[in-house]
Amino acid sequence: MIHQIYSILTDHTTVDRTLAQLIKDGTLRKFYIGGTGSDEFAIMLTEDYIHQIDQAKEQYLKDHKEAQEKKASAISSTPSTGKRKLDSTAPTAAAHSNASASKKRRGTVGAVAGTRAGSALVSAALASSGSGSTDEAGEGEIFDRFKELVSGGHCMEISIQHSNIQDVIGATDQDITTLIRYSLLNRSLSVPANPHLINLEASASHHTNTAKASLNGSHSSGSHSSLNQLITATNQQHAKSIRADTPSSLPTSAAAGTLVPTSGSNSTTNSVGATTTITDATARRGRTSDDVAYRFAIRQGGLFVTHFLKGRLEILRTIKRQMFSDMLTSAITAKPLRGSFLPHEFHIHDLVGSGRVQSITTSSGQLLKLTQKGEASAKAG
């Protein structure tokens, strides 16, 4: 974690500058760690991340091979069942009469023919499955192209836009789905770049009373607050109009997709001089026009975050139980962690670097004292 380096090197500016240069050179890659409750980032050697891409490709080919084998075994079981049925009916036909003997011979020949046809069918199925495996192995090239994207210096950021990954490596939607499935990409859930583009699918009827109250008054809280209330109310009316498919009921400006205030103080009127535009097509889709972003992910990142948070919380609560909310590092490391497989030193650097504990050098060793941030984290956890 980047903040762990802050517990070793006190000059944070130098740390940030050096990390930025190493990331730019392609030596390191920076990753966003979600699920921790705050914006925290990790760094990894680029060569280690490329090794993870190779592991993901191997797992993909292994899964595909197993799927093809199951498909081939399911096809091959069908002719063998037919053979048993023909063989069991042939002796029964021979027991009736001499006339049925010819039927028996024909049935036997039919059984043999059916068996040969079945074996031919199995061979064809196996051949087709083999060719399909080759094709899928070719489709596995998305991992090689993704490796080129990571190591070629095309994108050194923590995320990449949907259009960019299509343009740079020619990835299709199916390719992106494969990368997400094998934990190399994550869908970014960040706030849209334009906060005024509101999701019109959110239940407008639920906020009808709020919209009326916003339109009736309460402009005294400032021009910015009044502007937000006006934008929210107008978008809710727009959404309601779209659902009812009666755009004529809206004012001319709202039907055209432009938000213009109808009442309010002069400060509010001046604040909305630059109007916000929402196209009807975007409104009907119920989502913003911002391009979808994907974050570069670390394989088994969820397992890491689970143990990372459990170990952090366990040490914080241990320190909080002390009389003065402080504890020697030697006493902390002497007690094994129950919820994390990460070493004590890893968690101590995390707590010090994130500002949850204060490190104090004493004659007895390093003393960790809980800060207000640490107390809040221990209580929230």
From TrEMBL:
- Ranges for the region named Disordered are 63-109, 236-273
Source organism superkingdom: Eukaryota
Query: Compositional bias (Low complexity) spans?
Result: 88-101, 262-273
Q: Where is the composition biased (Basic and acidic residues)?
A: 63-72
Q: Name one Pfam family in it.
A: Stk19
| Assigned keywords, A-Z | Kinase, Transferase
Q: Does the keyword Transferase apply?
A: yes
Q: In which family does this protein belong, per the annotation?
A: Belongs to the STK19 family.
Under which name does UniProt file this protein?
Answer: Serine/threonine-protein kinase 19
Gene name, please? STK19
